[in-house]
Amino acid sequence: xxxxxKITLCLLVVLTMVGCVGKRQSQAYYDYKSKVIGSELDGSYxxxxxxxxxxxxxxxxxxxxxxxxxxIFNGVQAATTSQRNLNPLLFETNARDKYEDYFNxxxxxxxxxxxxxxxxxxxxxxxxxxxxxxxTLCETTVCVFRSKLKQKLIDDGILKQ
Length: 161
Known about the structure:
Blueprint: H1 2-20, E1 35-39, E2 44-53, H2 56-74, E3 77-78, H3 95-98, H4 100-106, E4 117-118, E5 128-131, E6 136-145, H5 146-155
Parallel strand pairs: 1-3
Antiparallel strand pairs: 1-2, 2-6, 4-6, 5-6
């Protein structure tokens, strides 16, 4: 009987250890949505955005592009009930495809999107990075000048009033 108890106990320990070592999912593969966390009276919004790239520098830049992209095409959900959701600037169906050349140049690495976002609301330790072997995910705070962006799209004939 003692042998049976020892074997059972060892088997339980081994099964517990195997269960703990199971497959882990990295948060770097999860799709996060941008959130509005604040607004200013000048028409700018503070957005918590996510960027995914091969290294942290590129992921940081991608988070800025994502914030501007979401303001233009997707709209941005409020982080709290005291904030309001932002509707997208372009409601036109397939606007990204219709004006593909314009937006490819706009979102290029040194494109005009940089004129409509800022890190002025960013505090020192507010960017978080999650890394895997293949990619880095960056969470950061971006200030997007929505009113200036809207005026730019109107001036360029993309957004109809």
